[in-house]
């Protein structure tokens, strides 16, 4: 089992490159948080639903996971245990927005 201390992490800049090359981002926040602002193209799977929705997680390339307050590390641990190549994005959605990158509003 992966622990929070060794959860793979990446940066906002790397996420931007990942998305530019056709990569995907998984948002594990609650639906109301997602509706307020999310990274364009982000797939919403709230953390409490992740185990039941593993089949909805893209598996053809690494998955970058975002949240607002540490949930991405927990999600990455769950995904790694399910043999999904996943990394937590340091700074999450707020870091993305604060960097001046675009966000969208509304539900998935």
From TrEMBL:
CDD domains: RHOD
Domain Rhodanese: 19-105
SUPFAM superfamilies for this protein: Rhodanese/Cell cycle control phosphatase
Protein name: Rhodanese-like domain-containing protein
Pfam family name, one: Rhodanese
UniProt region (Disordered), positions on chain: 89-108
Gene source species: Actinomycetospora lemnae
Ranges of compositional bias, category Polar residues: 95-108
């Amino acid at each position: 089992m992966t622990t929070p201390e060794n959860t793979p992490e990446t940066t906002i800049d790397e996420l931007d490159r990942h998305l530019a090359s056709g990569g995907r981002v998984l948002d594990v926040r609650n639906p109301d948080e997602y509706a307020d602002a999310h990274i364009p193209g982000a797939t919403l799977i709230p953390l409490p639903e992740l185990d039941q929705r593993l089949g909805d997680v893209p598996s053809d390339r690494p998955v970058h996971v975002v949240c607002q307050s540490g949930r991405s590390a927990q999600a990455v641990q769950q995904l790694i245990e399910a043999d999904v190549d996943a990394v937590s994005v340091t700074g999450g959605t707020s870091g993305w927005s604060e960097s001046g990158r675009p966000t969208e509003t509304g539900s998935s």
